[in-house]
User: Which sequence fits this backbone?
């Protein structure tokens, strides 16, 4: 009887330890994401000034507004666009809102606290 109690106690401690590890890993992941958002607060989007959705590109994250502008200008050139045929937006502190399908292409939508459009 004592060995069964000891065995059940060991299993219970194992389960508790496992739950603690999972909770710790989730907290670590959330903290890592928060740090990335703090270090790379800018996100960019480049688009054609037409309704051609295939010419929409979104970026990864940038440390500065200037880095976002540099990426955006290069993307416009890669698409064969300039400031009269295309544009870009750089936003800070953006959170993902939703993915939508427009014209057969997936477009990611974000809400940002500040947006610079050029």
Assistant:
């Amino acid at each position: 009887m004592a060995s069964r109690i000891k065995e059940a106690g060991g299993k219970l401690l194992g389960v508790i330890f496992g739950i603690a590890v999972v909770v710790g890993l989730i907290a670590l992941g959330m903290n890592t994401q928060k740090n990335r958002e703090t270090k790379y607060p800018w996100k960019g989007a480049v688009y054609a000034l037409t309704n051609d959705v295939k010419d929409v590109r979104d970026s990864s994250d940038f440390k500065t507004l200037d880095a976002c502008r540099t990426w955006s200008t290069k993307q416009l050139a890669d698409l064969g666009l300039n400031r009269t045929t295309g544009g870009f937006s750089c936003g800070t502190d953006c959170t993902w809102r939703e993915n939508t399908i427009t014209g057969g292409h997936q477009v990611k939508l974000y809400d940002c606290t500040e947006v610079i459009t050029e």
About this structure: The helical segments are 2-39, 65-78. Confidence is low (pLDDT under 50) at residues 32-37.
